[in-house]
Amino acid sequence: MRTKAAVTDSVSLQSTALIEGINRRIFSHWKLKLGMTLGLNVFFLSFYSLLQRVIFFTPRELSLNSIDRWVEFSPVWIWVYVSLYLLIPLFPLFSIKVEELLEFTVSLVLFCSISFLVFAFFPIECPRPDHISVGGLYDLLVVFDTKFNSFPSLHCALALYAVLFGQKCFFKKWSFLLRIPFWGCMWVWVALIAYSTLATKQHYFVDILGGFFVALVGHLFLQTQSGMRLLNSVHQFLNKES
User: What is the pTM of this model?
Assistant: First the structure.
């Protein structure tokens, strides 16, 4: 029979091993992760902000469908809306493979670029109410985020892709008993973020479908021969530069 001290030591060792494993994953390829983070943010914010403020074609508003009308405006959902920014870096942060990090970056750039082209040539105004102030985080969002760049929803695209990437990299590494509740929670998170885009009136329902579509395009393209050749080319380029 194990003594209390032995059990305590065993738990302590397991905790230490867990912490060391987490640290090893987080700090693995930290320079690449830092460069990815800075580069993707500059790329995204530059084009996203430009296309919100420089409109090349006449913007349009879409007709509300039954789902758009059913979901009432509720600014309290802004907290779920901004939770996306915790979901996006979650799985790349714990990746220890350069190939996975490059796949995340290339795929994100691909489907964001597709979205930016749609924003530029087919600008859509979101159904957000004008001249409304509720205070707090929602008002801050309205200051920085104009009503353009509605279709497709990059919010939903990024949420979906984050979990697709995470499943591809980590799904098989966990036991069945851990997979089901964890990934179930991840998909619920994606669904809640999608709902929050409707509740905050940042998007139409069709924007969500468009966002999911471009995310799938970016994800599935890199599983094709052409996509893998593109990844190999990027990898070789980085090796030459390093």
Answer: 0.89
